[in-house]
């Protein structure tokens, strides 16, 4: 049983944003349109060669049958050409799945000489169109490079191939009483190399920091085939430039990450989670301040979800899980996780914090997990939001950093914008099938100042995209935020980097790209 901490739900709460009325009938999915037809201004570069039979013969000479995937093979090529949101679709005719770093080196050396464009691909859970080709680029999948290399139980330093799936890395570490310092909803599919290449932030960044801190070393294959083996194990190493940082978050534009050395964290002995309802965003910020000062080192997650994101999640879960607080009737929800080494201390801290928060009128209702199953169920209401927002047909996702005081205002502004353009119903109860947008939702990582603005739609349309872009980016710039908090730039934000980076910063990125990849074969057409 979930322990309810306050059953006395207040009435008459006014809801600041437009409510979401999502479809409850079967999800409609459209066949994914080719990226090249959706964005006709994007042209295939003449610099790149078309794949020919000589190229195929070369790849067949260095790879086994199991490492090459072509249209005639039974495994579906569209799994590699289409992204997770079914928003982008490339036309690659070749997927290479090498089993060794040396083979990756030979592939890149050859592609560089022959000017064949390449898209590195991990678990293909990218949310900005970065992991799939735009035209006929060769897909270099890391799926077969998936061995754990070594682990030191004293220092917690873990070394693995780039293709190891995050969840598998964590399961391995848990057996040694350690944990991976990153966790996210796509953990069952995303790979360590993909997470490093996007500098994924995830659900516990506030406690464990970013991969820029926990990656101690990398092994990378440069576009010319050179292997840079820097799988260092040192926490302190100031020997000149910290070159690995260049590849963390580079999104496969200057090399292929083939291995990573990571500083992992001891697994906490005691973890607990509370799910709370709040009546306005201001109270979320007050609660966060209180959590920081009272829960201190025990605070391991502080996630927020708005009512709309919970509505969509409820529909998506189809009654599989009861809503933690009876009804989804409050404007905002917070999931707080505390973790430490002593259960009674951990629990006592959480309970006294929650009692104080109720006395100060910060929370309306809440519940604390009583066992591991309940804890996992509460997390499910947070981790399932990204796919729930997609489940109505499509979703436009924006991942932004904003000053905390302005964080939620973007959601309200986006709803107002869609209504003013006639793309969304003003009245949440009006299920007008002619309005392509269902509504904007907001959720994300309060501790990181990171809002996920998701606009659930019945289908992807040019009108919605034009209403949202550059509107969202201009809004973020006006508040001195970042247009790319943790998901990267990919193809989606290709034309908008200037909203968060100065001309000199963009030029320095281009210089680096040109230096390491003069033929531009690595993940072309994307942000750089
Ligand atoms: P891919 O999607 O395959 O690739 C991502 C990018 O990295 C592409 O540009 C690709 O070309 C490049 N790349 C991949 N592997 C390599 C490599 N070995 N070398 C060089 N380049 C490479 N992100 C967060 O930050 N926080 C979250 O909480 C979060 N939650 C998510 C939840 C869901 C349900 C989903 C679908 C995604 C989520 N993401 C989140 C997005 C996140 O970026 C990815 O899940 C993950 O980091 C990408 O890993 P991947 O292996 O799937 O990489
Ligand atoms: C999360 O925090 C992820 O759940 C995904 O970063 C966010 O899908 C999104 O917009
Ligand atoms: Zn996130």
Automatic annotation (TrEMBL):
GO MF annotation, one: actin binding
Keywords: FAD, Flavoprotein, Oxidoreductase
Sections of the chain in a coiled coil: none
Ranges where the FAD-binding PCMH-type domain occurs: 88-267
Record-linked SUPFAM superfamilies: FAD-binding/transporter-associated domain-like, FAD-linked oxidases, C-terminal domain
Cofactor needs: FAD
Broad enzyme group: oxidoreductase
GO cellular component, one term: mitochondrial matrix
Tagged with keyword Oxidoreductase: yes
Gene3D superfamilies for this protein: 3.30.465.10, 3.30.70.2190, 3.30.70.2740, Uridine Diphospho-n-acetylenolpyruvylglucosamine Reductase, domain 2, Vanillyl-alcohol Oxidase, Chain A, domain 4
Record's protein name: D-lactate ferricytochrome C oxidoreductase
Organism, scientific name: Kazachstania africana (strain ATCC 22294 / BCRC 22015 / CBS 2517 / CECT 1963 / NBRC 1671 / NRRL Y-8276)
Phylogenetic classification of the source organism: Eukaryota, Fungi, Dikarya, Ascomycota, Saccharomycotina
